[in-house]
Write a structure and sequence with these properties.
The chain is an alpha/beta fold and 313 residues long. It folds into two domains: 211 residues, 3-Layer(aba) Sandwich (Rossmann fold); 91 residues, Rossmann fold, CATH 3.40.50.1100. The chain is built from 14 helices and ten strands. The chain has a six-stranded mixed sheet, with helices on both faces. Strands 5-4-3-6 form a four-stranded parallel sheet, with helices on both faces. α1 crosses α7 and α8 crosses α9. It starts with 7 loop residues before the first helix and ends with a helix.
Length: 313
């Protein structure tokens, strides 16, 4: 099984590829003793997704890139693909849900991408993206279930190991599973003694449900303020990585996530979107003594009005 998964060499190669494009984000101490924050909200487009998107688009043959790329995304991955395509002179189409936050739609358009809306679920936008890709000859850049995407996201794990050598546990948000697959692979293939804990909303517990079933499970619906973590089903490849390398997956409520958004701002002046605050929510909610734990703050793309609501509640 392990030989079919992303290797440490794959992630190291991705690190060289994205260097100078994806920012080497800081790890900051938090107000909670023993907890450190990996600030991926400080990426140029506000989230970790730039790493995987650029790693994939950069590896496409020039003639393939020239025809254009397309993806389906609730927001951050769409912005990342749009930015990567702009940097690599490739046309880009982003298929977003009808409920996508305006801040993320505007972000994708600001990088020159065409935005198409389709339904409300990941399946709706995936179907639409496949339809457009076939009609226009575009290459699909999937949001999580691809080895190049996973390897790119794994560069977060390499940085954590380099920046905080005493780390003992890493908390990673779980949507489709691309980030936690890459981070867990980088960490466990280097330091198997470090615990890797996934965190997902209680209203979108697709990975927890799948692990309990022993195979990827499709949820009938999802609901959470963490719009970036609402995938109905983990990927086959990401599920395999989580099963191989992740120690535990926790769930948090929307109330706990909102409280974590407020806590991050109040104690560290960090602007985190709900999806990016899920890991901190898990740490605050479970209240266990910490020693050299790192929570990945995966993104900060939140509408000002929503953010104001969270921090003044």
């Amino acid at each position: 099984m392990l030989e079919t998964l992303v290797s440490l060499d794959d992630i190291t190669a991705a690190e060289a590829r994205v260097r100078g494009v994806a920012r080497r984000t800081p790890i900051l101490p938090s107000a909670l003793p023993g907890l450190f924050l990996k600030c991926e909200n400080m990426q140029p487009m506000g989230a970790f997704k730039m790493r995987g998107a650029y790693n994939m688009v950069a590896q496409l043959a020039p003639e393939v890139r020239g025809r254009g790329v397309i993806t389906y995304s609730s927001g951050n991955h769409g912005q990342a693909v749009a930015m990567a395509a702009q940097l690599l002179s490739a046309p880009a189409v982003i298929v977003m849900p009808e409920t996508a936050p305006a801040v993320k739609v505007e972000g994708a358009r600001s990088y020159g991408a065409e935005v198409v809306f389709a339904g409300r679920t990941s399946f709706d936008r995936k179907y639409k993206a496949e339809e457009i890709a076939a009609a226009r000859g575009l290459t699909i850049v999937p949001p999580f279930d691809h080895e190049w995407i996973i390897a790119g996201q794994g560069t977060v794990g390499l940085e954590i190991l380099e920046q905080h050598s005493e780390v003992r546990a890493v908390f990673v948000p779980v949507g489709g599973g691309g980030l936690i697959s890459g981070v867990a692979t980088a960490i466990k293939r280097t330091r198997p003694d470090i615990r890797v804990i996934g965190v997902e909303p209680a209203g979108a517990a697709k990975m927890s449900t799948s692990l309990a079933a022993g195979e990827p499970v499709t949820l009938p619906r999802t609901a959470s303020i963490a719009d970036g973590l609402l995938t109905l089903r983990p990927g086959d490849l990401t599920f395999a990585h989580v099963k191989a390398f992740v120690d535990e997956v926790l769930t948090v409520t929307d109330e706990q996530i909102a409280a974590a958004v407020k806590w991050l701002y109040a104690t560290a002046k960090i602007v985190a979107e709900p999806s990016g605050a899920a890991t901190t929510a898990a740490v605050l909610a479970h209240g266990e003594p910490l020693k050299h734990a790192v929570a990945v703050v995966s993104g900060g793309n939140v509408a000002p009005a929503d953010f104001a609501k969270y921090i003044t509640a």
